[in-house]
């Protein structure tokens, strides 16, 4: 049993070693070029969401001679807003501790998770395209597996981008100073949080959806379903002969 496993592992290593050949040619083709774009936009998607931190401010306006004060609530990824308390000093000099309302971590974390795994898959397939192109095309299974995974990621980008878009709308409402100011009579809206980075993250999500869905066609062209069956059989026979020689 151990001998069989050792021989199988050795054959895999020899196959990978013999199949290694750095070729930047696929980057000039839609298959490789779009994969690079997916790699870049996946980074933008999870980085703009996962690294976000913002603040929202309300003002407590008192009649003279009493002074006014600001209350600032800081929040960020993963947007469990209830975990961010902030203190308000009201006009009678007493203090109120309040919390932002809402937990939007599920949609944000799902979106970031899809982005990270998409980035890792793009990295792996780019290595395969550029360094092991012969292994990728050795049988019809490589392009088919690539197609199935790409279709799956396109669907995940649709789900996660839609969910995060809805979640971001709720985050904006929950951190709007006009809504927070209702907790006390003397409170008014102050500084609004900057949401440009989060708006960009949703845009990157739907751009990823377009890229991954569009790339399905170019990967499909690499499968036996698109190619002439006789041509696909000839290619596989050629690689079978190559394996027998080595």
List keywords for this structure.
12% strand; single chain; 5 strands; mainly alpha; Marvel; two-stranded antiparallel ribbon; 61% helix; 246 residues
Largest sheet: 3 strands, antiparallel
The proportion of residues in beta strands is: 5-15%
Average pLDDT, to the nearest integer?
Answer: 81
Strand order of the largest sheet: 2-1-5
Low-pLDDT stretches = 1-16, 232-246
Q: Judging from the principal axes of the Cα atoms, what is the shape?
A: rod-shaped
Report the order of strands and helices: HHEEEEHHHHEHH
- How many domains? The number is 1
Assembly state (oligomeric): single chain
Individual helix count: 8
**End-to-end span in angstroms?**
24 Å
**Percent of residues in helices:** 55-70%
Structural class: mainly alpha
What's the alpha carbon Rg, rounded to whole Å?
A: 27 Å
Number of strands: 5
Protein name: Synaptophysin-like 2a
Domain MARVEL: 26-224
Pfam families: MARVEL
Main location: membrane
Folded structure, characterized:
This is Synaptophysin-like 2a. The chain crosses the membrane at residues 108-132, 144-164, 200-220. The protein has 246 residues and is mainly α. The chain has one domain. It contains eight helices and five strands, in the order ααββββααααβαα. The strands form two sheets. A three-stranded antiparallel beta sheet has the order 2-1-5. It starts with a helix and ends with a helix.
């Amino acid at each position: 049993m151990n001998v069989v496993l050792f021989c199988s592992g050795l054959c895999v290593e020899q196959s990978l070693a013999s199949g290694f050949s750095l070729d930047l040619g696929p980057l000039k083709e839609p298959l490789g070029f779009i994969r690079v774009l997916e790699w870049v936009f996946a980074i933008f998607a999870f980085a703009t969401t996962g690294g976000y931190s913002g603040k929202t401010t309300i003002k407590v306006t008192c009649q003279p001679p009493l002074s006014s004060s600001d209350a600032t609530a800081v929040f960020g990824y993963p947007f469990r807003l209830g975990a961010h308390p902030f203190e308000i000093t009201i006009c009678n000099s007493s203090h109120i501790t309040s919390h932002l309302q809402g937990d939007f971590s599920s949609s944000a974390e799902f979106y970031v998770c899809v982005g990270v795994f998409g980035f890792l898959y793009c990295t792996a397939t780019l290595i395969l395209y550029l360094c092991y192109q012969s292994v990728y095309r050795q049988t019809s299974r490589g392009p088919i597996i690539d197609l199935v995974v790409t279709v799956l990621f396109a669907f995940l980008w649709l789900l996660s981008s839609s969910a995060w878009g809805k979640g971001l709308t709720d985050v904006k409402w929950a951190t709007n100073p006009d809504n927070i100011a209702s907790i006390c009579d003397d409170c008014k809206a102050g500084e609004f949080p900057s949401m440009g980075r989060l708006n960009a993250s949703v845009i990157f999500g739907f751009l990823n959806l377009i890229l991954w869905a569009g790339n399905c066609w170019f990967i499909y062209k690499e499968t036996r379903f698109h190619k002439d069956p006789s041509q696909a059989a000839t290619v596989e026979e050629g690689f079978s002969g190559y394996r027998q020689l080595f």
